[in-house]
Amino acid sequence: MTAPDRLLREIRTRPRAADRATDLYIVVLSVLVFVLPLARWGTQQVAPATQWSPPWWTAAIAAMLVAIGAAAAGRTRGPVAVSAPYVEWVVAGSAPLARRLRPSWWRSLLVTMAAVLFVTVVAVVSRSTWPDPVGAVTVSAVALGSGVLLSVVWLSGQARRWRNAAVLVLLSAGTGLAWTGAWRSLDGDPAWWSLLVVPVAVGTAVVVPRALSAIRPSRLRTQAIRWSRIEVFATTADLASAAAVLRAPTRLGRHWRPAFAAPPFVRRDLIGLVRAPGRTATGLGAAAAAGSLIPIAQNAVTPLIALISVAAAYVGVCFLSDGLRFHAFDRERPSAFGVGPGAAALQHLVVPTALLTLVMGSAAVLGGSPHVAIALALLVVACRALSVFKGHMPLELLTPVMTPVGEMSSAGRLIWLADAVLVALLVGGTTVSQASGWDAVAILVVAAGLVAVWARSRWRQ
């Protein structure tokens, strides 16, 4: 242990026995109140899906997409997560960089492996039949190997070693193939070849020292400071500011002055989408995924697919409606282009509404449900407007609310923060999973109209 390490450990406040008891009480209570009910609900929703036998290419594509997401997430927050003082005093020292960052890497590796194994156990327990013991061991081994490979991909993304990340993404496709074989072995048909994931995942660890050495201390410092700001905003229930910290500044096309026949704010929204191609592609991809899942959700025996579809649609409209969000935040400024604030808000709704309905409707054509997808897009856009028009949190939500089970003011703040998302998930998910055809369209359109009226009342306030 280096001298800076010892200094940081000495100045760190050591918890008392009472503090440790309180932490243990909070952990146990959180597991009983949140983790176990969510795991039970997850088993009930995942149970029908465990009977599926998807083709091998589906699992391969899903594994590749997860690996690509992990590599992309490394640019914002990687597995090597240290505090700013640690970067200044320890990382910037004379010891080799890989040795200084190894403890943080090991912690993230163990957490990732535990998370993948936990999800796998929930899926195995959700089966209607008791799994074969050999198959259960095989699935657990594949889960642990997948966790190792996912952690290495995540680290490669943080180190900006994109060649290694590309090779690891291709190996993740093989992991998807191993998952199909291991899952079938739960019925007593062992697939020993799927255990090759374990040595392959362990072999990828050879790139870890070079990846740790390639991480720049300045990048670690930037990530630590950014994440501390996010934590501050999140603890104060300012999720909009926390999300704004995560957004990278737009540098493309600052001097563009295109002119074409369109209302001014519609033109500005289109220019903004072109200037941020990454965010635009993410929004369009999420909308396409939501539209393609709608036909599957209407025939599924669990509403989980419908909830995933609605969540993907809401993510898509969030990425495509930055102009609406900026206008709602700066609505007190003088009007531009001679257009009033209300008319400008309507113009900002044109681009996300048109793109979302077009992409979701086109993606749902193959399943025969484009009308349902378009109606769901209208509901999601209305919910997005409801979210951005809410303004600042009312002060009465910050006052303590004492109940027999404890202080519950945080519940009111959470409902206020997530009201639009809850409306979209409850109304949209229930309608898509329980209704079909024009009945679902009628319910979604009426719900979109009611939410639009609610959003208009928030705007006028």
From TrEMBL:
Keywords: Membrane, Transmembrane, Transmembrane helix. The chain crosses the membrane at residues 21-42, 54-73, 109-128, 134-155, 167-186, 192-212, 304-324, 410-429, 435-455. Signal peptide: none annotated. This is Uncharacterized protein.
